Amino acid sequence: MAKVRFHDTNEYIEDREAVQAFLNSQDVIYEYWGVDQLDPALRNNYAPTDAEKQQILDTFQKEILEISERRSYTTADVIVLSDKTPELDKKLENFVKEHHHTDDEVRFCVDGHGIFAILGTDGRYFDVELSPGDLISVPSSYRHYFTLMEDRKIIAIRLFVTPAGWEAIY
Ligand SMILES: [Fe+2]
């Protein structure tokens, strides 16, 4: 379950309903899909083959189709970041630069953890700490950045409206 942390006060929202209510108030879509249906062989596998990535997408096909119809997402893929990723630190340096996109940025956390830091509508920056099973959609034009947590790894499904809409505007 996702947690929210405010940068200015270091306060957390951890209660499931309170997290959902806060993110709704910010127009950030949050859904909990869970990962119970995931084949255990696909967990903690940070070097998945293309076939295994497809297996991950197939596992969540129903949820992906449902949200894609609602939000006009057209494509999905799987991204993996870990210490096995070439030049991970260099990539992270880029991810922590504040930016926005012209489309929603949608991620479903399959394994590991990730943080989306988002500039809220009231000018306060907050983190959304994602755990396996969490889906987030950062609305278009919201300033934000991404980073990993202490485990320094994540497997996530990305959903796109258009590939061009996901280019970062710094
Ligand atoms: Fe982004």
TrEMBL record:
Keywords: Amino-acid biosynthesis, Dioxygenase, Iron, Metal-binding, Methionine biosynthesis, Nickel, Oxidoreductase. GO terms for molecular function: acireductone dioxygenase [iron(II)-requiring] activity; metal ion binding. The keyword Oxidoreductase applies. SUPFAM superfamilies: RmlC-like cupins (SSF51182). One of its GO terms (biological process) is methionine biosynthetic process. Its cofactor is Fe(2+). PANTHER family: ACIREDUCTONE DIOXYGENASE. This is acireductone dioxygenase (Fe(2+)-requiring). It comes from Brevibacillus laterosporus LMG 15441.
